[in-house]
Amino acid sequence: MLAPLAERLRPKNLDEYIGQTHLVGDGGVLRRMIDTGNVSSFILWGPPGVGKTTLAKIIANTTKSPFYTLSAVNAGVKDVRDVIERCKTDASSMFSTGRPILFIDEIHRFSKSQQDSLLGAVENGTVTLIGATTENPSFEVIRPLLSRAQVYVLKPLEEPELQTLLTRAVTADELLKKSDVTVEQTEALFRFSGGDARKLLNILDLLMQSTPLGQPLVINDKVVVERLQENPLAYDKQGEMHYDIISAFIKSIRGSDPDAAIYWLARMIEGGEDPVFIARRLAIVAAEDIGLANPNALLLANATFDIIHKIGMPEGRIPLAECTIYLATSAKSNSAYKAIDAALAEVRQSGNLPVPLHIRNAPTSLMKNLGYGTNYKYAHDYPGNFVRQQFLPDDITGNRFWNPCSNPAEDRLAELQRNRWGDR
Q1: Is the pLDDT confidence value at 294 over 70?
Q2: How far is CA 303 from the centre of its chain?
Q3: Terminal CA-CA length for the chain
Q4: What is the DSSP track for 69-126?
Q5: CB atoms within 10 A of CB 287
């Protein structure tokens, strides 16, 4: 039986790998690891179909390292311990050519105890851990493990990369290259793929299978839309339009439409979406889109995230709905989001500017003699617990990063700052 197209075209080396040039292109950190053979533990974070599993297999093949794989969906603590024991045997073997690699798919689904069971083997070098996750590791991976494994972000494939993949499929696949395939338009194909290489190849598989034997396969926008409407789930086993729906949910909250937001929430719940995933997105929206206009929004979102872990579903739908409506009807502000991005841009541009002497810490007499802390004004010694003095480095004194949005809460903050600092 012929394997699916996505499996037939799975890259076997970096020359065949498409995308993620920031990691595997010339000078990329993973390229350097592979070239030197010194592979350290890391976690690949990115959406489905961008090459996480493939990259792990390429690294193992190229470095000739024993390769073990576990899926967090069905592996328990015993499975982890068993595979670590096998890795120990490999590592001590005289025939071993490289440190064993343990690849864990969907590592965010591992429980704390399962993640704890990995720590010793990663710490002492028994295994090189490569984890793959579609979720933010900082929420779901324990801190001790994160401190031992660098996180690398993988990006959705862009249109030129999808075009390269399409060309390769049509010209190099053993079945497609023997078929009469004409590519007339790609807009719908790339749009439905959503930067997911596996999804694009699965759509091609669907188009090929739904074309009568002996007839040419013509790929254009009309054909793609018609065939996918007839088979809406044929290429998406994780649920219809997963990323489109979460996008609609977030944008409905940002747009202050509680009815639309609660509808998209219901779509996700009915579709079996992970409630923790939804709660995490609510926390992000509360910080990014509501922020200082209503700081209580983040408190409620955090409480929702916490209670979902405690009560689960179906009861969890109620706090999810409460938080969704509260965030959708709240005043909005992205001033904190824009402020940190502006400050990060300044830091990347200007580098490590020196801290002004008067606000440096001076724990030793030598530091005091060098002027550390001299002329610092202690705010609580002044009326209103405020006194004007310089806090930014000399080179960027007067720069503004936080620009308040217009809403009652930030209007009050802005007025307070004007009274303190004037129009600086």
Answers
A1: yes
A2: 22
A3: 72
A4: EEETTT--HHHHHHHHHHHHHHHH-TT--S--EEEEETGGGS-HHHHHHHHHHHHTTS
A5: 18
